[in-house]
Structure formats: structure tokens, C-alpha cells
Write a structure and sequence with these properties.
Binding site for ATP: 3-10
CATH architecture of the largest domain: 2-Layer Sandwich
Largest sheet: 5 strands, mixed
Radius of gyration: 20 Å
GO molecular function: ATP binding; kinase activity; phosphotransferase activity, alcohol group as acceptor
Distance between the termini: 23 Å
Family: Belongs to the anhydro-N-acetylmuramic acid kinase family.
Strand content: 15-25%
Helix content: 40-55%
Bound molecules: adenosine-5'-triphosphate, ligand AH0
EC number: 2.7.1.170
Shape: globular
CATH topology of the largest domain: Nucleotidyltransferase, domain 5
Order of helices and strands: EEHHEEEHEHHEEEHHHHHHEHEHHE
Catalytic activity: 1,6-anhydro-N-acetyl-beta-muramate + ATP + H2O = N-acetyl-D-muramate 6-phosphate + ADP + H(+)
């Protein structure tokens, strides 16, 4: 999995037992992107000269990195490739325009699954989102069905939030289909501000954010973004939450603000948009599990807990799956669903006409 934060690849090796029951993660590798490759992927998020050529080459380069991650996982687990049933490979989202323009829209994940299959000699399942779009859905978020399968509890109402580049929420209520939608920015704005002012890829632990003062005018302007008020189904990406979007807000509402105060405000924005969605539901949620890199941002976790006083906010680690493994495990699970010819999309989440088998198989030999 390589997600919208553009931080790198998370790979997991997952096991199912003889009865095809999910058994969990047995190995995890995180391989960061080199700065120049990250810059190439960032440049592909908007149109530019000869972008088809650049996207094709970036897809090849990404598949080579995925293959390295697979090799490292096999080494870690001392397992031959022949024992692995399939690799689920999401690709790198460079555009997400569901339902736009012609009623179907598109979502574009650059990748080269054929090259990955050639390199690994393992079946590769890729292109997980397009079938849901073809069925009238948004193609995202897809993880709620995985959250339901792995974290669902018949006795409790749970919420999960994945705070990657973008944040997406899942709601699990006993006896009901999972619900879920994209909330808004996760780390994407905080990351770009940290790179710009500190030259670092992210704000470790949220310590820089914690050193600043929240700017109420800016925060309210950011919270007024119309996407936040939309009803589900809804999904978004860097197509909306990009540097120019932030700069336009700063020019209007915080022209000469201290950088640390802007960071504090961006952290509060992520926390309040998530908490706001949960509070508007007026539902007694027993706990909120946080996954994705945002779970490692102590200041963000503190603000989430403060905003949701009555709901315990926990890292997914406390329920058996470390936050940086959850999304990658979800795509292993989706690949497994594909192999079993089981539908894995949830129409209540994506808005599609019905559940569909997701992905496409590139045989490993
Ligand atoms: N120790 C840390 N302190 C603060 N933030 C962190 C830490 N570790 C990771 N992060 C944040 O988490 C991000 C990566 O999260 P993750 O890998 O879940 O994102 P992603 O999978 O790319 O995104 P998405 O879920 O949107 O597809 C980093 O860019 C950074 O902002
Ligand atoms: C189009 C796309 O890549 N969307 C991602 C992104 O990152 C988070 C959020 O926006 C979510 O909609 C989705 O990822 C997760 C894994 C999903 O599909 O559930």
C-alpha cells in the first residue's frame, strides 16, 4: 500500500487459517520513498507537460519498489514466494474524480501490476477501485468492509478513523452494514506545512503543532470547506486539499501568522473535522480506534480525545493491529476476497448500485 501521504510503501504479509479465517499480520515492512521520487509523485497530482509519459515511468518505478517490499517481507518471514497466494497492490492515487463530468468519473492509481507479477512470480491483484465506479459508486473508501471483518464486535458500537494523507471514518454497529466516508484532510496539510517551514517530512509526534496557538479565524474558515458539510457517500483527495487550497485560505485569513500557529491550527482542523462528523451522528460510540500515521501524532490524538470527551480514543494497536499496518492489511484482505470471488465493496459506503468483486488478477507465471 502506498497512500495519499506519499510517505512510502507499507507492506504486510498476512495469514489465513485452513478454514479461510483471517489470522493476522506476520511481517511488516515500511519503505520510505526517496525525496526525488516523492517529488515526481507529487508533481503527478496535477496536470503538467507529458504527464502520461511521466505517469507510466512512475508506475514502473513504483512497481519495482513494491517488488522490493515483497522480497523484504519474504526474507523477514523466511518464506518462499511459492507459499504466497497473491499480492494486493493498490498503486498510487494521482487523481480522484468520482462521478465527475459524465456520471461515472474516474479514479487513477498509477501502477504496473504486470511488472510486479513478473518480478515476484506471484499473482498480483490490482485496480481495486474502478469496478465500484463502474457500478455508480465513488470507488472509495474501501476499507470499511475490512474494518467490519476484523474489528467488528456484536456487542459494541465502534468507530475507526484512518488518518493517512486524507482521513476516512468507519462506523460499525451490531447487525448493520458498515458505514464510512472520507472526512477531509488527515496529515496532508500538516505535512506540506512542515516540509515548507522545517524541511522535515512530518511533524514528529505533533510537537511543533503543540508549540503553537490555534488561530480561530483560520480554523473556522477551514471548517467552512463545503466538502465537510456534504452527506455521504463522499470521498476526496489531493485533488481538493492541496497547497494552493491552503495558501488561498492563509492569504484571506492568516496573512502574517506564525508558522507554528498555522501548524497548531491545521492539527486542530484534522481533529475537529473528525470529531465533528462523529458528534453530528448523535450516536453512543463505545470507542474510536485510530489507525494510519496520524495515530503516532500525540498532539492530534490528544485533541481528538479532548473533542470527544465521552468516547475513548485509542490507537488500533490496542485492538491488535498497529496503525501503520491496517491499510496495507486491508488491501491483502481485499486481494483475498478477489481470489474467493467475494464481493468486497459496500454500497452503503461508496454509493454503488450493489456490492462487486474488486480488482483484477495478473498471474504470477
Ligand atoms: N511519528 C509520527 N508523528 C507524527 N506523524 C506521523 C508519525 N509517523 C507517521 N506520521 C504521519 O503519518 C503519515 C503517513 O500515514 P499513512 O502511512 O497512514 O498514510 P497513507 O497510507 O499514505 O495515506 P492514506 O490513508 O490517505 O492513503 C505521514 O505522512 C505523517 O504525516
Ligand atoms: C482514491 C483514494 O486513493 N482514496 C484513499 C485516500 O486515502 C484515504 C481516503 O482517501 C480513502 O478514500 C482512500 O483510501 C482508503 C484506503 C480506502 O479506500 O478505504
Amino acid at each position: 500500500m502506498s497512500g495519499t501521504s506519499l510517505d512510502g510503501v507499507d507492506g504486510v504479509l498476512c495469514r489465513w487459517d485452513e478454514s479461510d479465517r483471517w489470522h493476522g499480520v506476520v511481517a511488516h515492512v515500511h519503505q520510505p520513498f526517496e525525496a526525488d521520487f516523492q517529488a515526481q509523485l507529487l508533481a503527478l497530482q496535477a496536470s503538467g507537460p507529458d504527464e502520461l509519459h511521466r505517469a507510466a515511468l512512475a508506475g514502473n518505478a513504483l512497481a519495482r519498489r513494491y517488488a522490493e517490499v515483497v522480497e523484504r517481507l519474504l526474507q523477514q518471514a523466511a518464506m518462499p514466494a511459492s507459499q504466497v497466494r497473491a499480492v494486493g497492490a493498490h498503486g498510487q492515487t494521482v487523481r480522484h474524480q468520482p462521478l465527475a463530468f459524465d456520471g461515472v468519473g474516474y479514479t487513477s492509481q498509477i501502477n504496473n501490476p504486470a511488472l510486479l507479477a513478473e518480478r515476484c512470480g506471484i499473482d498480483v491483484i490490482a485496480d481495486f477501485r474502478s469496478r465500484d465506479l463502474a457500478a455508480g459508486g465513488q470507488g472509495a473508501p474501501l476499507v470499511p468492509t475490512f474494518h467490519h471483518a476484523v474489528f467488528g464486535d456484536p456487542n459494541r458500537t465502534l468507530a475507526l478513523v484512518n488518518i493517512g494523507g486524507i482521513s476516512n471514518l468507519t462506523l460499525l454497529q451490531a447487525g448493520l452494514a458498515p458505514r464510512g466516508w472520507d472526512v477531509g484532510p488527515g496529515n496532508v496539510l500538516m505535512d506540506l506545512w512542515t516540509i515548507r517551514h522545517l524541511g522535515r517530512t512530518y511533524d514528529e509526534g505533533g510537537r511543533w503543532a503543540a508549540s503553537g496557538q490555534v488561530l480561530p479565524g483560520l480554523l473556522n474558515a477551514l471548517l467552512a470547506e463545503p466538502f465537510l458539510a456534504l452527506s455521504p457517500p463522499k470521498s476526496t483527495g489531493r485533488d481538493l486539499f492541496h497547497a494552493s487550497w491552503l495558501d488561498a485560505h492563509l492569504a484571506r485569513s492568516a496573512r502574517s501568522a506564525e508558522p507554528a500557529d498555522v501548524q497548531a491550527t491545521l492539527c486542530a482542523y484534522t481533529a475537529q473535522s473528525i470529531a465533528g462528523d462523529l458528534l453530528r451522528l448523535q450516536l453512543q460510540v463505545d470507542e474510536l480506534l485510530v489507525c494510519g500515521g496520524g495515530a503516532l501524532n500525540g498532539e492530534l490524538m490528544r485533541q481528538l480525545q479532548a473533542a470527544l470527551a465521552r468516547t475513548p480514543v485509542l490507537s488500533s494497536d490496542e485492538r491488535g493491529l498497529p496503525p501503520l499496518q491496517v491499510e496495507a492489511a486491508a488491501f491483502a484482505w481485499l486481494a483475498h476476497q478477489h481470489l474467493r470471488r467475494q464481493a468486497a465493496s459496500e454500497p452503503a459506503v461508496t454509493g454503488a448500485r450493489g456490492p462487486r468483486i474488486l480488482g483484477c488478477c495478473y498471474p504470477g507465471y
